[in-house]
Design brief:
The protein is mainly alpha-helical and 476 residues long. It has a single domain, classed as MFS general substrate transporter like domains (Growth Hormone, Chain: A). It contains 16 helices and no strands. Helix 2 runs parallel beside helix 6 and helix 2 runs antiparallel to helix 7. The protein is globular, with a radius of gyration of 23 Å.
Length: 476
Amino acid sequence: MAASQEKVGFENVEAADSDHAGNKGAPISADDFGFTPEEQKKIIRHVDRRLVLTVGAMYCVSLMDRTNLGAANIAGMGVDLMLIGNRYSIISLVFFVTYIVFQPPSTVIVRKIGPRIHLAVIAILWGGVMIGMGFVKNWEQMAATRVLLGFLEADEVGKRNSIFYLVGCVASAFAGILAYGLMQMAGLAGLNGWRWIFIIEGIMTVLLGIVGYWLLVDFPDAKRQNWSFLGVREREWICARVHADRGDVKPQPFSLAKYMRAGTDIKVWAYAMIFFNTTTVTYALAYFLPIILTHNMGFSVGASQCLVAPPYAFAGIIMYLTGWAGDKYRLRGPIILFNALLCIIGLPIMGFHSSPAVRYFGVFLVTAGANANVPAAMSYQANNIRGQWKRAFCSATFVSFGGIGGIAGSLVFRNEDAPGYKPGLYACIATTLLTMILVGILTLDFRRLNGKADRGERELECDADDTYEPGFRYTY
């Protein structure tokens, strides 16, 4: 019964799209459903609870892995696997090779088979690889498992983005404390404590993947979708709202020409570069913060693992507040600039002050600014592109550049630069300054283009059908 209702409901949307107001191709408006603002908020909350938190929980496992690689290193992995020279950096960065290579086709694959099966299977396989990481015998085997994780990771607005990554920040904050607790299992079954970090977290991930299969939903346009937690009219309204916001609620036949045409827009590459700058800093912190706390600031191994938590908890607060402010005041660029400013202030404090306590305060600012800019950058590009295949291309370049930032972040803090790590600090400062410059340039360009659109001199951003919608304006 539910399946037949879903089919009828979405056929109604398509019929309305074809003949709304007597204009073929004109989409039905979300306002036509008669929901009050309170009812609309209630529907969105239903979707957020089901989708954002479930996917956010899955994202947690990848963030916990990234954070706990550093925790495992200082807990004995570096000694057991003989991570001398740049071996730790190699283990960190090989993850991103397959991540970058396989991410672009993944944006097409997930549209074909649906995110429900896609993400659930990936989470289960991810957990299996994590468990295997607990049994590796040498650093080459660890590097191989990281390559597999990169392949699996490749297959995965505003306040909502912030909530999504807020869950990730909570995971990062909890991960160090969890790692410290799992270290106490050292000797159990003849395994060192760092191995139990990967084994237990891997088991948790497998279980999450199984549960995720039942909680995740497919795209609202898909025939296989399982949106029974909403009524028919509510689902129709969701589709109309997505179409009004993105212009791509109905899937279009894949077109390589349309997909590649997005690469001619220089703004797409600017968004990607902003994300590269951001992830360079976030991955550098994720992989090296426990090591910096130990070698640079003089904290013990146990203290370093636990002291990772407060900066990430603070980052979660800043992330949510800036996401809320961005949505309320329709701001994107200024939010990125504010977060970048926190990094610019925090990095010199973290790197050059004489007091370890003050340097640790700098860690709070850098961690908050860098991590809060992840959802801020995503919202920035999401608000300023339209069309299914341009969005797919932009997503692929965006995430791929984020992966390249991960490679850079894996290399900026080198063993030979310890304990000061000054070259790494300079690199993080440079990337943050570049983000501020790019946002400034884009803001000026958005104002110029919006002005032309207001004067009727040009239209902005095609939707999936290669048609323009006169009301679209860039958000800056």
